[in-house]
Amino acid sequence: MKRFVHLYYGDGKGKTTAAMGLALRAAAHGESIVIVQFLKSGSSGEIDMLRGVSGVTVFRGKAGNHFASHMTNEEKAATKAMHDRHLRQALHLAYAGYCGMLILDEITAACAYGLIDEALVQKTVIQPPENTELVLTGRDAPEWMRSRADYCTRLVKEKHPFDLHVPARAGIEY
Q1: If we measure between CA atoms, which residue out of 57, 128, 135, 47 comes closest to residue 90?
Q2: Cβ atoms within 10 A of the Cβ of 12, count?
Q3: The dihedral sign for the CA sequence 171, 55, 59, 13
Q4: Rounded to an integer, what distance in angstroms lies between the CA atom of residue 127 and that of residue 14?
Q5: What span, in angstroms and rounded, lies between the C-alpha atoms of 171 and 82?
Q6: DSSP for 55-84?
Q7: Average pLDDT of each block of 10 consecutive residues along the chain (174 residues)?
Q8: Distance (Å, rounded) from C-alpha 164 to C-alpha 50?
Q9: CA–CA–CA angle 99, 146, 23 (5° rounding)
Q10: In terms of C-beta distances under 8 Å and separation of at least 24 residues, what long-range contacts does 85-90 make, across chains too?
Q11: Residue 109: its pLDDT value, please?
């Protein structure tokens, strides 16, 4: 069966939600799922639920509790090392045949901030592991990623409560 590359990008809400929805759908059909969440370490309703689903493996984390733009050099170095390790672990599972779907959540941001081995990301996107559906998310997707994607969906924000300084809400934004 041919596998495809999916990309959900843009400033609109729903990129991670779309990817996690695909994970649930694939898991319901017996696929094994590997999720790597970049630049995320806090509570997340969908990840908490997916961790309880058979066949789902999750790698996530970052050093410190800051946004990437506010990380110290030490936090950036530690985060990059963690992200590189998580991506390599996920790819090992995919190349070994233990992964029918690989989700790289916020991969575009990890690339933009230099917090991942971008050459390895490009190799993965351009030539994904065989028999693995690849799902990518993030705000600003580079042209090379958009042109490679088989499914390319841009989510555009028109309004969001965040614009009115409403904080993220459990069950809605995370």
Answers
A1: 57
A2: 15
A3: negative
A4: 26
A5: 27
A6: TEEEEEE-SSSS-GGG--HHHHHHHHHHHH
A7: 92 95 95 95 82 93 85 94 98 96 97 96 96 97 97 94 86 79
A8: 31
A9: 30
A10: 86/36, 86/38, 86/59, 86/60, 86/61, 87/36, 87/116, 87/117, 87/120, 87/121, 87/124, 88/120, 89/59, 90/34, 90/36, 90/57, 90/59
A11: 96
Please report which helix (H) or strand (E) contains residue 104, including its range: strand 101-105
Structure-token match 């898991």, residue found: 27
DSSP 14: T
In the chain, the amino acid numbered 85 is R
Rounded CA-CA distance 6/4 in Å is 6
What is the length of the chain? Answer: 174
